[in-house]
From TrEMBL:
Gene Ontology molecular function, alphabetical: hydrolase activity, acting on carbon-nitrogen (but not peptide) bonds; metal ion binding
Residues annotated as domain NodB homology: 75-251
Residue segments, region Disordered: 37-64
Native source organism of the sequence: Actinomadura rubrisoli
Gene3D superfamilies for this protein: Glycoside hydrolase/deacetylase
Composition-biased stretches (Low complexity): 37-62
PANTHER family linked to this entry: CHITIN DEACETYLASE 1-RELATED, GLYCOSYL TRANSFERASE-RELATED
Keywords in alphabetical order: Hydrolase, Metal-binding
Any GO CC annotation of this UniProt entry: membrane
Protein name (record): Polysaccharide deacetylase family protein
Pfam families for this protein: Polysacc_deac_1
First and last residue of the signal peptide: none
InterPro entries: Glyco_hydro/deAcase_b/a-brl, NODB_dom, Polysacc_deacetylase_ArnD
Any single GO BP term: carbohydrate metabolic process
Length: 270
C-alpha cells in the first residue's frame, strides 16, 4: 500500500469514529425527534436509579430550632405532653413541625421501648424528652427499690432509642416525696410539675381543652397535656395559634427556667 492510500484510509477511520461518538450522544426527544444529550458517557441501564449523592432525592431535614429566648423578658410558655409516645404522637409532631414549635415530652418507658422511632423523631425535631416512669407508677408512695426500677428502666429505654439520657422527671400524678427527691438528686434529674392542667385526661373534648388552656395560660407557665389522647392533639393547632396571637413564645422546660435546673428540686412555674 502506497503512502497516499494509507493516509486516506487512516483519515476515513478517524472520521467514522468521530461520527459514531457523536451519534451516541443523541436521544429521542419528547416529540419523537433526535436531540443532543448533555452526557458523553454511556446511557444508564433501564430500571436503575441514580446512586446516592448523584442527584437522588434526600429526606427533608428536621425543623431547625429557633434562636435562644430570654424568658425573663419574653412571654414564654412551655407546652408539655405526658404518657407517650403512641400513634397519636406522630400527628402531634407533624403539627408542631408545621408551626415550628418545640415542646417537652415526658415519656413512659414502656411506650418508648415500643415506639423507639417516635422517640428518635422527637429528638431530631429539637424537642426535649424526659422521664415519666416506666409504667406510670405512683413514685411518691413507692419503695426505693420500685422508684429506682421505674426511673432506671425508663432512662435506659430512652437512651437506647435516641442516644439521649433525660435530666428531667415528671412524677406521675404529681406524686412526690422526700425519698423521690433524694433519688432524683442522685440521678441528676429535676422534678417538673405544672401550672396549667386542662384535665384533658378526664374530658376528652378538644374545644374544652382549648378553652381551659387559653383561660389559664400566663407567661412562665408549664402547660400539661397528654399526647396519648387524639382529642388533645386535635386541640393543639388552635392553642398554638391563639397563644401566638397573644404574643407567647413557645420554649422547652429547660429553656423556660433559663437552662439552670437543680437535680431533685421541684419546678412548677418560672
Amino acid at each position: 500500500m502506497d503512502g497516499p492510500d494509507l493516509v486516506r484510509r487512516v483519515a476515513a477511520g478517524v472520521l467514522a469514529v468521530a461520527v459514531s461518538g457523536w451519534l451516541s450522544t443523541l436521544s429521542y426527544g419528547a416529540g419523537g425527534g433526535l436531540t443532543a444529550s448533555a452526557s458523553t458517557g454511556p446511557a444508564p441501564k433501564a430500571g436503575k436509579r441514580p446512586a446516592a449523592g448523584s442527584g437522588a432525592a434526600k429526606p427533608s431535614a428536621p425543623v431547625r430550632a429557633p434562636l435562644p429566648v430570654d424568658c425573663a423578658r419574653a412571654k414564654c410558655v412551655a407546652l408539655t405532653f405526658d404518657d407517650g409516645p403512641t400513634e397519636s404522637t406522630a400527628t402531634l409532631l407533624d403539627i408542631l413541625a408545621a408551626r415550628r414549635v418545640r415542646a417537652t415530652f415526658f415519656l413512659i418507658g414502656q411506650n418508648a421501648a415500643e415506639h423507639p422511632e417516635l422517640v428518635r423523631r422527637e429528638v431530631e425535631a429539637g424537642h426535649e424528652i424526659a422521664n415519666h416512669s416506666y409504667t406510670h407508677a405512683d413514685l411518691g408512695r413507692a419503695s426505693e427499690e420500685k422508684v429506682m426500677s421505674e426511673l432506671t428502666r425508663t432512662q435506659e429505654a430512652v437512651q437506647r432509642a435516641s442516644g439521649v439520657t433525660p435530666v428531667l422527671l415528671r412524677p406521675p400524678y404529681g406524686s412526690t416525696s422526700r425519698r423521690l427527691t433524694s433519688i432524683t438528686r442522685r440521678m441528676n434529674m429535676a422534678q417538673i410539675l405544672w401550672t396549667v392542667d386542662p384535665l384533658d385526661w378526664a374530658v376528652r373534648n378538644s374545644r374544652s381543652v382549648e378553652r381551659r388552656v387559653m383561660k389559664a395560660a400566663a407567661p412562665g407557665n408549664v402547660v400539661l397535656m397528654h399526647d396519648i389522647h387524639p382529642t388533645t392533639v386535635a386541640a393543639v393547632p388552635r392553642i398554638i395559634d391563639r397563644l401566638a396571637a397573644r404574643g407567647f413564645v413557645f420554649v422547652t422546660v429547660t429553656e423556660l427556667f433559663g437552662g439552670r435546673l437543680t437535680p431533685g428540686k421541684k419546678y412548677v412555674q418560672r
